[in-house]
Amino acid sequence: MEITKSGTDTKNTPDQTSLAGLTRSHKTEVATQTMIRASEELLMIIRQMQELWLFGKLDTVGTSALEARTEEDTKKVLDLLQQMASKEEIN
């Protein structure tokens, strides 16, 4: 326990206790505001993704053009390999 020149306990003065309480209260308020802001931003991102998905710019349902092209290329390669195999059987 610290004692000042006047003989009072410096750790338990009302001014310091209320200042510590205000500091804790302010820190809590800032942390709460930060969490609220982060939650709001997350909700905005979720809404944007839902809109993109619903209105077609986020193409996750069905086959995409890339998948269709890959399937066509795969069939062409398969046909070429079958032709090469049949030519080797003839020779």
Automatic annotation (TrEMBL):
Subcellular location: Nucleus
Pfam families (alphabetical): Med22
Gene Ontology, cellular component aspect: mediator complex
Region of interest (Disordered), ranges: 1-26
InterPro entries (alphabetical): Med22
A GO term, aspect molecular function: transcription coregulator activity
Keyword list, A-Z: Nucleus, Transcription, Transcription regulation
Compositionally biased residues, Polar residues: 1-20
Keyword Transcription part of the UniProt annotation: yes
Protein's GO biological process: regulation of transcription by RNA polymerase II
Family: Belongs to the Mediator complex subunit 22 family.
Descriptive protein name: Uncharacterized protein
Originating organism: Venturia inaequalis (Apple scab fungus)
Lineage of the species this protein comes from: Eukaryota, Fungi, Dikarya, Ascomycota, Pezizomycotina
